[in-house]
Amino acid sequence: MDIVVFMILKDMYTRFDKLIQNYSSLQKIETIGDSYMVVGDLNNQYDSQIIIKEILEFAEKLIVETKNIVAPSYKLELRIGIHIGSVQIGILGIDKPRLCVIGNTVNVSARLQTNTLPDTIQISEKLYLNIEDNDIKEKYIKKNDVELKNICKMNTYVRNNIIEDEKYKNINIL
Question: Are 79 and 64 in contact (CB under 8 A)?
Fold first, then answer.
């Protein structure tokens, strides 16, 4: 069974890695188990609206691409959480050092992810208020006073029914 899980994750991460190459402002930081961590604009060279548009589109495509992965006896589903804000970045460790991104922004994103329904993107109100494209804003539904464990209650916005979106009907991204 472990080999099956490994092969599914390998296929998934390979697809995600190919997909992220289409987004110049996004960088994959790491995979932890079944978690795929992405940040926007580590080098502070992109306009915030480009980053927001790319991360939201990338998130939608991750959910669609997951449906193309063959997983025996499994229905693969993603939960995505996205927040906007500052982070601390650095190399940690002596033995097998690695790049780490930490901070409240990472914590809030993780809580948004764990607190949403399968195949749904949940974003913070702070991110939503920074979206300038009304076509993007219209796709999100407000949820009031969502409890984010050990953080706070906050208003969030969710994007679901992504698979039913006309632009993703009958398409294999990769």
Answer: no
Dig out the tokens for 155 from the structure: 């208003």
The structural domains of the chain, ordered by start, are 2-162 (3.30.70.1230)
Q: Residues, the chain, total?
A: 174
CA-wise closest residue to 174 among 69, 31, 40, 26: 69
Q: Residue 17 is inside which H or E element, if any?
A: helix 2-20
d(CA 48, CA 52): 6
List phi, psi (to 5°) of 156.
-130, 175
For 90-126, the pLDDT digits (tens) are 999 999 998 889 999 999 999 999 999 999 999 999 9
- pTM equals 0.90
